[in-house]
Amino acid sequence: MNQFEFNRRFLLKGFAGLAGAAMAGHVPGLSAAEATELKYWASGVAKVGAKDFSAMAAQAGVELAVTTKSARADESIQKMVVGDGNKLFDALTDNGGGMEDALASQKAIVPID
Fold first, then answer.
1. Pairwise CA distance, residues 108 & 90, whole Å
2. 3-state DSSP call for residue 88?
3. Tell me: the pLDDT tens digits for 36-65?
4. 67-98, pLDDT tens digit by residue?
5. Of the chain's two ends, which shows fewer C-beta atoms within 10 Å, N or C?
6. Which of 84, 78, 85 is nearest to 102 (CA)?
7. Left if phi > 0, otherwise alpha if psi is -120 to 50, otherwise beta: which for 67?
8. Which bin fits 24, alpha (ψ -120 to 50), beta or left (φ > 0)?
9. Which contiguous run of DSSP H or E holds residue 16?
10. Are 76 and 97 in contact (CB under 8 A)?
11. How far apart are CA 18 and CA 49, in angstroms?
12. Is residue 80 packed enough to be buried (19+ CB in 10 Å), middle (13-18) or exposed (0-12)?
């Protein structure tokens, strides 16, 4: 075996392992569940505790990076379906009015526990 075959084989095995881990849904460090903060897009009226999310963050043991969004469903749908909402946020609050159905039908959101 020459050096070229070894490098090529090594590289292919590495890619196969990475692809397998990605398909299984677990690449260490890339999961939102492993993140040190949860990026949360919430309407201005969504509060837990006194005036912010600090009690919720303390109980969960994860920092919450909360961004306020308007209560307009069309803004949320636009951001999550066409825009970069899935790259910016790990979770969002609903606005009511069937927004979840529209987002789910476009596979822009999934339920979480």
1. 11
2. helix
3. 788 888 877 666 666 777 777 888 788 888
4. 888 878 888 888 888 889 888 988 887 766 67
5. C
6. 78
7. beta
8. alpha
9. helix 3-23
10. no
11. 41
12. buried
The answer to whether 39 touches 87, Cβ cutoff 8 Å, is no
Query: So where are the chain's domains?
Result: 1-30, 31-113
Residues whose CB is less than 8 angstroms from the CB of residue 66 and which lie 6 or more positions away in sequence, other chains included? 40, 41, 42, 52, 53
DSSP string for 46-85: ---SSSSSHHHHHHHTSEEEEEEE-S-HHHHHIIIIISSH
Q: Tell me the whole-structure pTM to 2 decimals.
A: 0.59
Q: What six digits make up the tokens of 90?
A: 């790990």
Pairing of strands 91-92, 37-43: parallel
SS3 5: helix
